[in-house]
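Today's session is about reading a structure prediction critically. Students often jump straight to the picture, but the first step is always the sequence itself: look for stretches that repeat, for charged clusters, for runs of hydrophobic residues. Only then move on to the predicted structure, which in these notes is written as discrete structure tokens rather than atom positions. Here is the chain we will use throughout the hour.
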Amino acid sequence: MKNKILIIIGHPDKESFNFALAEAYKKGVEKSDAEIQEIVIRDLNFNPNLQFGYRKRTELEPDLLKAQESLKWANHIVWVYPVWWGSIPAIMKGFLDRVLLPGFAFKKREGSLWWDKYFTGKTSRIICTLDQPPWFYKLINRSPSHYAMKKLTMNFIGVNSVKITSIGPIRLSTDEFRQKWLKKVEKLGKQNK
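Below is the predicted structure for this chain, in token form.
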């Protein structure tokens, strides 16, 4: 069975290194026999505000319905985004809030603290950029965005195999540093990891 890979880009700026990383991963996938789809969050037409929480349903825009179809289709989800203020960009947070809804990604059990996970069997790769060395982000700052995306988002909906590639510091990086990472990320794509 062919791997079905979905790349989701969470950076709002198309000129960013994140877009180059996503393109490198995609280039690698295209050298394999996997199928590929892509979601560029900044290009979607949607309100990122989950206005009523889960109290009242907000109708999904066509772009979000299409995104849900892509998420269902994929067996490997690749997230590419920068870490800002120890978290993810606001537009990506809005995407998560609006798309990973009860009844689609999970279902809370009646009268219980537990829930059913609808994304079991899928895998994920997080490729994120930092303006600090990855070791500093992990040891000193305790990797808050990694924990939130891996444990509190992906694991919560059933994606248990989540690998993280942290790249940094980007702000003062050389072209040689960036080229090295583009090659590594392309290799990950080719291996469908």
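Discussion point for the tutorial: The longest helix spans residues 175-190.
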